[in-house]
Amino acid sequence: MSTTTDIVLIICSTIILISPFIFIVWFLRYRPSKKNHFLQEEIYRKEQEINLKKQEIKQINEQLNTIRYELSGYDSETILLDVGLYKPIFSFDTSEEYKSKIQELRTKQNELVKSGNACICQNQWTVDGSRKKGLAMTKDQVNLALRAFNGECDGLVSKVNSRNITQLRSRIERSFEYINKLNVRNAISIQPKYLSLKIQELMATYEYAIKKEEERAEQARIKEEMREEIRAQRELEKAKLDAEKAQKEAERELEHARKLLAKDQTNIELQTKLAELERKYQEAVEKSQRAMSQAQLTRSGHVYVISNIGSFGENIFKIGMTRRLEPLDRIRELGDASVPFSFDVHALIYSENAPTLENELHHVFAEYQLNRVNPRKEFFRVPLERIAEEVRKRNAKIEFTMLAEATEYYQSLALEKEHQYIDVINDENEDLSEE
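Request: output the structure for the sequence above.
Response:
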């Protein structure tokens, strides 16, 4: 037992004796150095920089996602899918009424701002123990939020059109949410009723632009109808004067022939000439009466059915009306410059009330209109047989040409296959200033 105790004492004594040397060795080998401390600080700094970079990358990715979303709103297919059929929220008859409504909405916005109900702060702040300074700071923050929101809305409203109306409304709503989110800590928020007025202003501005365009198109149509009416009246007046002149000339020739025949009643040649002059005189009288009658009928004219396969394709027809004495002149004008090929005429229908006949046909084929926004374009995608059927219900004597020759179009196709073209020859008498 004593031996074991002695061994333990020896070991303990040995450890005690060598422990200072062990400490010295550890201290010399493993003690902290300035270099190690610097490296640790450098590692920590780099880790902080990496974390900051990660945060920046995250923010950039969020911004990119927002930009991608906004850009997708300008894709034509996305627009058509998102917008759908726009349903107006106002139903005014004139652009002036829309203009007044926009001004009314802006007045209401100003009243909300002045009353302090456009943007509110739910807390009462103090600055350095001063409530007055806190109120001033709160007012500045409210004004800043409103300035940001108003600036965004004004910029978007100025860009509104039929292709971006839904996207701009969405952007105004997102701007409202974002600005309120930024001001959560300050307990400041723009009110929904102020947002509602901004949305209404956007819609009213869009509908105002649409109504202005409709009014311009209607004014252009009225002016064109007035010019067409003036041309028709001039043609009718000229035709009436020419017919009266031809009647007087035929009457003079007939009277002269009668005097000659009275002197030589057995002259067979004079008798034949007199009969021919009497026939011409009767034709001149009838022509003069028709011209006078047509000039007096203010609604008489021709309804025409025409096509242009080269320009619009098959089974597309224009149903229009002209009061020209020569309706083909009007049809030639339509094919002169506005389209690449001439129109083919399928029917010319004379009516003493041409506008009514035209309107009836337009009403019957309303569901076949190509342009659903502007029916004044008068183009319909419908089989010609259907048009002929409806026309014959109103005028049994009408003759339809079912075949569209489209001569210029088919000749152009043939030349295109052979890689040929026709040189343009300038007319020396052409007014080059009009080019």
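Residues 259 and 265 are 10 Å apart (CA to CA).
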